[in-house]
Amino acid sequence: MNENPDIQAHQLLDNLSLYYGPKKKFVAICAGTGCRASGSLKVKEALEAELKKQNMNEVDVLATGCLGFCEKGPMVIVHPDKYFYQHVKVEDVPEIVSKTVAKGEIISRLVYRHPETQKTLYREEDLPFYKKQNRIVFGQNGMLDPSKIEAYFNIDGYQALAKVLSEMTPEDVINEVKKAGLRGRGGGGFPAAVKWEGVRRAHGEPKYVIANGDEGDPGAYMDRSLMEGNPHSVIEGMIIGAYAVGSNQGYIYVRNEYPLAVTHLTIALEAARQNGLLGKNILGTNFSFDIHINKGAGAFVCGESSALFASIEGRAGEPRAKYVHAVEKGLYDKPTVLNNVETWANVPLIINKGADWYASIGTEGSKGTKIFSLVGKINNTGLIEVPMGTTLYEIIYDMGGGIPNGRKFKAVQTGGPSGGCIPERLLDIPVDFDKLYEVGSMMGSGGMIVMDETSCMVDVARYFLEFLKEESCGKCVPCREGIRRMSDILEDICSGRGREGDIEILESMGAAIADGSLCALGGSAPNPVLSTIRYFREEYEAHIKEHRCPAGVCKALITYGIDAEKCTGCGVCVKVCATQAITGEKKKAHVIDKDKCTRCGACIQSCKFDAIKVK
Amino acid sequence: MVNMIIDGKNVSAPKGSMLLEAIRGAGISVPTLCAHEAVSRSGACRLCVVEIKKGNRTRIVTSCLYGVEEGLTVNTKSDRVLNVRRLVMELLLARCPESDLLQKMAKDMAVEPQARYAVDTDKGKCILCRSCVRVCEEVVGVSAIGLFSRGSYKEVGTPYNEKSDVCIGCGACVYVCPTGHIEMTSTGDKRKIWGRTFKMQACEKCGKFFAPVDQLKFISKKTGVPFKELTTCTECR
Asked: Which chain B residue is nearest to residue A482, measuring alpha carbons?
């Protein structure tokens, strides 16, 4: 043990940082899951080969984590000018190297064009998608190769830990996080420092520190992209948290369906251990802490704290009543801090830049930024990080680029499957923990699903309840039996079997299920139904009373017809129709036999003349 | 002792006890299905919910799991409470329409079956209160039965629904089952339960078949009492 830990921690870290001398020029290619799916790894290999071929050994290729603008992947960013290229293919690589990397010339076909003004925008920061964001957490992804700890050192990685270990007492750390106003990013929005303080004070050893990476919302992938793209930020946050609460043992609970996250976390933990940042006597101090990865089997409910503990303990992932809080009795009935991965990733920033800086971002009650996954009927699908208090309008129209195909916005679903649907007239509300709750939805972990006029809100509620029915653990009666009965009723309504009074039954069931369920899954499960009834009641009524689906989605309530004036009689639809429901003479308007038609939509897709109409 | 106000009455209860006992101790009835005295509590049925008030905040809690607290105001019959109980009863009546117990409880609580729910035909009388699973694990100590699947597919049974090697045929699960769902038939020297047939031990003295041989062997192994000493029924001992 060293005599003077205060100096030692910083010195040791400085020595580690020396390992990595970054090159001035590098080409970053997004190797997040989305871009990998669209072939970015092949582009990366091509870049490496081409740089070698053209004798440019002074240039690095950086395979980064998710850069956010998934719609435009694979993305390449050429540093130091930060030229942004979209939809890059292997064939583009020789030109990128010979022109842009070598001479700083821009290849205009790969550049982003503003969809309205058609103006070309060269740099990442000029793109409307990025412009209004404040990517304090997620922006680091673009600067590092997540499989190299040196890259993290290079962006001041583990400096916060060194500062904490050498200059701050555990109480100082808790106070700093409290002053910053950090609230849990997993959905609950509980003040992180209050949790930490509780665990610090609680009796019982050992104490546990856990990162919740069991992101299970359909369409949400921000936690995944953080763990994949910047695992050390999560780990550093956890080590600092462990120091603050007095814990020596941590877990990262991550879904096994996130193989890249598991791989990168495993590499990162091993590298941290080898560099003396995890394990015994971290950075030469008396403080010891290590982290294990616990792979979840994919149950949505295991993101709930007490179910997550049960799962780590090797039992079925079922929640239990939490009248005694996890800070006193959590994992193995010991004091436990459980925070979402994004919450942990915020911690090093708070320590490095200070609580005042952090608290200057966001709203009165919700500080800092939040990462959202913006998906659904939206032009710019991707991950965005915005200051708390940004309006839904800014997110959907300024960053998201609005709704594709000139369609009309209808609703945005926030907070995952048990969140709520927010209509157009509320788009001006600033997004923070409290505001979303007020309008009947919630922050959740940050999923945002945008819907347009072709989305049926009853069908949307039916879809989410079906999901929750499958994912309810089945322990308590209101959730297990109640959700399936609500789901049955919604199924009836969508199939034209809705009855007078169904809306009222759903409302009364929803209130009782929310009140009576054991955990937050059941407690919030009625939200998709209650919020769509609240804002789109007329759509429910149209289904029940008029047997009509206004959005043209529910198959039992719609009929397909052909607009005789538009139909050219080309016969393409006849070929795609699987049930031979379409007939007609060549070059004359065709007709659809309603009895044979299964309303699969294939003819609509195939018709170039917009002649097929849904009623 | 801890002092509380329950339905407007001053009630005191021993520290560390649960609200359910305090409420019943005050002569107020609270329906329950899953709180059996022989096993730990799980909070699964949600019938025992009450509304508590601390400061300005009110919330619904399960009284079987909520510890008594000084100064707590408890309402056992608020609208919110009765709505949850009514929902639970309606849902269970639709799940287990043949259960006499549920019908009687529903009548006592003035709850009618909800006509909008299609009645289940495949669940028997099992309400998944898990008393059987808990007694098998906690009291008997063999864990021959458990819960499988998730959500509405959840069911109780032996692993893979095969004959259990560890079941001793004691019937504790039958004894704690509130609705009489678990089938156990005893004829002559045979007892059938969970798909397995057990040989019964005849009492050395009166000759009555009183317990499965496997159960007596299990007790002998656990307690160290020789098997021979256990072959007399409790009445003749």
From this structure: B91
* Per-residue pLDDT at A22 exceeds 60: no
What's the predicted TM-score (pTM) here? 0.92
Minimal C-alpha gap between B45 and chain A (Å): 6
For A149-190, the three-class secondary structure string (H helix, E strand, C coil) is HHHHHHCCCCHHHHHHHHHCCHHHHHHHHHHHCCECCCCCCC
| Strands, sheet with B2-6, edge to edge from the N-terminal-most edge strand | B9-13, B2-6, B73-75, B49-54, B57-62
Residues in chain A with CB shorter than 8 Å from the CB of B114 are 505
Domain boundary among B73, B108, B143: B108
Q: Looking at the predicted structure, is the pLDDT value of residue A17 above 60? A: no
Residue A118 has pLDDT above 90, yes or no: no
Among A322, A329, A467, A475, most B C-beta atoms within 10 A, so best to mutate, is A475
Helix (H, G, I), strand (E, B) or coil at A121: strand
What 3-state DSSP class applies to B119?
coil
Can you give the residue range of the structural domain that contains B149? Answer: 131-236
- Domain count of chain B? 2
Question: In terms of DSSP bridges, do strands A83-85 and A76-78 run parallel, antiparallel, or are they unpaired?
Answer: antiparallel
Q: Which of A366, A376, A373, A446 is nearest to A409 (CA)?
A: A376
**CATH, domain range A458-546:** 1.20.1440.230
**What pLDDT digit, counting tens, does each position of B107-144 carry?**
999 999 999 999 999 999 999 999 999 999 999 999 99
Which amino acid is present at A516?
Answer: G
Residue at B14 is within a domain: yes
* A27 in contact with B, Cβ within 8 Å: no
pLDDT tens digits, residue range B138-182?
999 999 999 999 998 999 999 999 999 999 999 999 999 999 999
pLDDT over 50 (residue A3): no
Measured between alpha carbons, how far apart are the two ends of chain B, in Å?
43
Give dist(CA A247, CA A232) in Å, integer.
Answer: 19
| Domain A369-455 bears CATH identifier 3.10.20.600 | yes
Cβ-contact A9, A15 below 8 angstroms: no
Taking the C-alpha atoms of residue B69 and residue A289, their distance in angstroms, rounded to an integer, is 37
Partner B contacted by A488 (CB < 8 A): yes
Residue among A259, A254, A268 at smallest CA distance from A312: A254
The predicted pLDDT at position B110 comes to: 95
Instruction: Say how far apart CA A311 and CA A299 lie, in whole Å.
Output: 10
Query: What pLDDT shows up at residue A1?
Result: 40
Q: Tell me the fold of A559-614.
A: Alpha-Beta Plaits (3.30.70)
Q: Is A313 helix (H, G, I), strand (E, B) or coil?
A: coil
Question: What whole-number distance in Å separates Cα of residue B172 and Cα of residue A9?
Answer: 60
Q: What's the CA gap between A51 and A127, in Å, rounded?
A: 27
Domain boundaries, given as residue ranges, for chain A: 23-126, 157-359, 369-455, 458-546, 559-614
Backbone angles phi, psi at A334, to 5 degrees: -110, 160
Residues of A with Cβ-Cβ distance to B43 under 8 angstroms? 320-321, 476, 518
Residue A403 and residue A378 in contact, taking contact as beta carbons nearer than 8 Å: yes
Query: What confidence category does residue A2 fall into, taking pLDDT thresholds of 50, 70 and 90?
Result: very low
Closest by Cα among A240, A231, A241 to A268: A231
